[in-house]
UniProtKB/TrEMBL annotation:
Superkingdom of the organism of origin: Bacteria
Gene Ontology biological process: proteolysis; tRNA threonylcarbamoyladenosine modification
UniProt cross-references to SUPFAM superfamilies, sorted A to Z: Actin-like ATPase domain (SSF53067)
Gene Ontology CC terms: cytosol
NCBIfam families: T6A_YeaZ
PANTHER family for the chain: TRNA N6-ADENOSINE THREONYLCARBAMOYLTRANSFERASE, TRNA THREONYLCARBAMOYLADENOSINE BIOSYNTHESIS PROTEIN TSAB
UniProt name for this protein: Peptidase M22 glycoprotease
Biased composition annotated in UniProt, kind: Basic and acidic residues: 213-229
Residue ranges constituting the Gcp-like domain according to the UniProt record: 32-134
Length: 229
């Protein structure tokens, strides 16, 4: 029995995790433009590695982003498809939560320390959210995820006294006015997403996307036909 965890908010990532939170198989394909082509073959490989079949899945977890429309949609649609086909629960977790949770563990942060997790939103912007570390070493979100220009975020004071991590922090470190931490996570771990979902089973965990803005690519409006006068 296993939980399938998927995230396409950045790279193409998936994990198989036991109901107790043990990682059974995990892999990432560093492709930020080929989510649709890479995700299903990746899941098939993981099932083969763990010697499991889709019939062994007991739940599905999906990273909700925030992320641009196209890539994020691929992961969420795939997660919904597996959950529907197997008639198993589907849980959604903010992808930035996984970066923050791994940061707290990797860096050994203590209770009360703040974390700011940033990812690349393209258009020279970042998605961001802040967290505080609990006495148990877990994380508590301080605000809902948002999107901003790095310089505006730095000027807002939201990053003050925070450990700033994530791919967005590395990409825009000069505009943010920060020193990046080499050992800190930059992308969400799908294993961590699954563990967060397990820890929040008593909470509402909708698998709905966090786009935070309109899609980069939009269908053009139909042109009106000219009529003869």
């Amino acid at each position: 029995m296993a939980i399938l965890s998927i995230d396409t908010s950045a790279a193409v990532s998936a994990s198989l995790v036991s109901p107790q939170g043990e990682e059974l198989a995990s892999d990432t394909v560093a492709q930020e433009r080929r989510h649709a082509e890479e995700l299903m073959p990746l899941i098939v490989r993981l099932l083969d590695t763990a010697r499991l079949t889709p019939e062994d899945l007991t739940a599905v977890v999906a990273g909700r982003g925030p992320a641009p429309f196209t890539g994020l949609r691929v992961g969420l649609v795939t997660a919904h498809t597996f959950a529907f086909a197997r008639d198993v629960p589907l849980y959604g977790v903010c992808s930035l939560d996984a970066i923050a949770a791994d940061t707290a563990q990797t860096l050994g942060l203590t209770a009360g320390q703040r974390i700011a997790a940033l990812s690349d939103a393209r258009r020279k912007e970042v998605y961001w959210a802040t967290y505080t570390v609990t006495p148990q070493g877990t994380i508590t979100p301080l605000d809902a995820p948002s999107v901003a220009y790095p310089a505006d975020l730095a000027a807002s004071g939201q990053l003050n006294e925070s450990v700033v991590v994530g791919a967005g922090a590395h990409l825009y470190r000069e505009q943010l006015g920060i020193d990046t931490i080499a050992d800190a996570p930059t992308r969400p771990s799908t294993t961590t997403l699954a563990r967060l979902a397990l820890a929040r089973l008593n909470e509402d965990q909708p698998a709905t996307p966090l786009y935070l803005r309109r899609p980069d690519a939009q269908v053009p409006a139909e042109r009106k036909r000219a009529t003869a006068s």
